[in-house]
Amino acid sequence: MSQHRPGRRRPVAALLTLTLTSGTLAGLSVLVPATAEATAPMATTLVVTASPTSLTAGGSVTGTVTAQDGQGNVATTDADTVTLTSTDPLASLAPVTLVNGVGSFSATLSTAGSQTVTATDSTISGVSNAVIVAAGATTTLTLTTLNSVVAGSSNTATVTPTDAYGNPTSPADVVHFSSTDPQAVLPADAAWNTVVGGFPVTLVAAGAQTLTVSDLTNPGVQSSSRAVTVVSGAAHSMDRQSGDAQSAAAGHTFGAPVMVLVTDASGNAVAGQTVVFSLPISSDSSFAGAATSSTVTDSSGVAVSGPLTAGSTPGSLTVTAAAQQVLFEPASSGTLPRTPVFNGSTTFTETISGSDAAAVATPRTSTGIGTAAQSVTVPVPAGGSITLLDANGHPVTKVVTADGTFLLDPATGIITFVATAGFSGTAPPVSYRVTDGYGQAATSTYSPTVTAPSASSGNPSPPTAAAGAAHVRAKARVVLTGKTFSATCTITGAAVTTCRSWLTARVKHHQVVLGTSKTTKASSRGTTVKTVIRLTARGRALAGRVGGVKVTLWASVTGTDGRVLSAKAAVTIVKKHVTVPARVLFLPGSAKLTASAKHQLKALRSHLGGVKTVTCVGYADTAGPTAGNLALGKARAKAVCAALARHGLKRVAMSYGDKRARAFGRSGNRRVQISLTY
Questions:
Q1: From CA 442, how far away is CA 438, in angstroms rounded?
Q2: pLDDT digits (tens, 9 = 90+) for 375-394
Q3: Tens digit of each residue's pLDDT (9 = 90 or more) over 426-461
Q4: What is the C-alpha end-to-end distance of the chain, expressed in Å?
Q5: Predicted model pTM
Q6: How far apart are CA 37 and CA 41, in angstroms?
Q7: What Å distances lie between residue 168 and 108, 112, 162, 194, 318, CA to CA?
């Protein structure tokens, strides 16, 4: 017997017997063999039912699959395995094997909408009734916005709430925006279902920022964050950074180049902006020989001029920094006019002082007894020279007069006078000329005074004890609290009658006088004389620098025998309280040291010898709340003080927040000011 599918109809073999009586059909018998199967319905369709007809995403449905023939009869002999699928892509259904033509199933439906289940067996199939799946409770917020925005520009952020299966929901929950950008302008807290067209967001601080949205009504809802790169906008302002109010002698290079900071409207540094530094047309000052210096701002928005050299005319010098950014726009005439969108400038005021030669060439005097030699020392400018002038103004190293002889040592600048025997009084001055390394010259005089020896002693005998060496002493590091400090003059093995002292230092490769004392007489016939040296304004300014200024302390010491001896000592002079001129700048809303700040602090740390306390004062611009700015300033101060840490150094970090904003712009107020106490 051939194979067949259960539930399908097939022919049955039979034996037909006819009985005839007198030509009439008297009966009909059909004999069916005992092994033949009874007739069964054949399946022509599958009927699928599912319940319930509505549920929440993640809910389960149960149902049946029934094999039926064309008349709706159950194909009870159908034992096929049918395949189940669903319009819900998240549903997973296992195959069902029919028993007596009927099978059951269960499934989890997760995708919102009208969903059905389909059963398929070879050539027949069936589709269930629709099951309406509703979205579940909100579990996640998904934030969508641009990956990169321009600082200060308004952008739209969209928030999509979904259930656990990704179905959009429509909650009335209040959502809250936050950002790593402390200056960001964020939307107010609002119910999600009341906002049309997205949420307006403005990020301000340049750099990598994060935007986050969270659910205030239901904190259990997962928040969402997006990384956003904020790029600086167009140049908007330019501020002085450093290099203002400097002083340099004519022909010398100023201590530092001039620097400006270019920022956008939000205070972010603008890189790649061309800045031109220029000098007055009438000035012979220059940037490495040129009247202008053009440069481009670096990644910190800073542009630095070339080396600035003072011209020959003392007085005020104005340096102008200018920058322009333009757009090209079509005009009706077809031309492309230049339309400035930024046209910034600022000025620096420097001072050109007289030459080193003028500072050194001052009237000088000395005193001595009889024919004992007396001398003065004139500092020799670096690269320059000193010479005596004869009666005709010619340069010489020896001048002989009726009253005595003047001798010059050009290498040391010492001018010695030996009086003619019998002369007393003040000799007519000899002229000397000082020429600095730039060829600028100044002339002055030296006037010696000779006191006649006492009648009992005549001219002094050859020096004995006074022939010892002269010494001048002060602390190796003088911490200046005013305008003066003291030094002690001695002569080995002899008494001292008078002492006069002065200071010189090499500044910009030139020797300059930074302080002098009066000629001080010994209070009694003692072995020491204390002098008080008063620093010049320039000397005090140099002492106010980090580390102070290294000077040579000179002394002209007169012994009781009339000999005038010279002495010198190396001293460092520094003010007790020094403010570091360069500010440490920060990016908006950040207390992290930039690369340039780290380099700046590393250089400063190597010059903290003798410093007892470093004080770091942090500031912030006016963006953000006052309390937040105060905390931000403190964090910046701590970061700077930590970078300056060294053994034995006391560090003090404090903050004024935005309470002491200065006129150099918002970017300049994001700073830390450093002061040192020696």
A1: 12
A2: 999 988 877 889 999 988 89
A3: 888 999 998 877 677 888 999 999 988 765 444 443
A4: 117
A5: 0.49
A6: 12
A7: 18, 9, 4, 16, 66
